[in-house]
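Example 3.2
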Amino acid sequence: MTDARALTLHRNRAVSEGMFLHHLAADEIQDRMNMVNKPFASIAIVTGHPDFWSTRFPDAALVADADTLALAPGHYDLVIHAMSLHWANDPVGQLIQCRRALKGDGLFLSVAFGGQTLHELRACLGQAEADVTGGMSPRVAPMADLRDMGGLLQRAGFALPVADALPQIVEYEDAHALMRDLRAMGETNALAARLRQPTRRTVINTAAQLYRENFANDESRLNATFEFIFLTGWAPHESQPKALRPGSAKHSLAEVLGTSETKLTN
């Protein structure tokens, strides 16, 4: 799905001013760490933006988000997959590798863009290209939704899996300003099936007009959605709480609610 060479080139063009969404993601990750009453002596961060994440976690080991992660098995108390999972060709494989790198009862945290990200731009570019050229090419990566991402945690074998989403609306003067920001973030189109020639100016201008007609707010600025999906899971350990065996309850629901129990009839 992802052209790794193109993705690297795009990330190398990222500038500090374009990393404001990474700051928000890092703040949220640190908030989640602070809610865990446990020290993290050995931390690894999987990311395609090591320069940024090293400033927020200076003591962490930085690991490139390659298909095969350079993570030592059973070595870390905490592994963070930072703003890269939406570009992974094998996201469940990435999570499995992270789980194997954790010590027993080690914590995994991930933040990545989710399926609602840039839905406005995706719709406008698709409509513009269809109107102008009569066809469509992939321009925005097909990011997974919250349910799918939560399912990845279970497939990867994490205990106590939790997935939650945080939508963030960013306002822009016009669609061209949004596209410049995506370039500054290193998040422009790196799909392997992308169009390999410059997009016609007519397509871009038509998309910008459609964006203004459909997604302008009351202040005549354009809304762009960025959906963050956060994943939390633990490496399995015997000390973790276990679900009770079906039929092992000592009190009925009626007793807990202080009401009478009504038997079902055929």
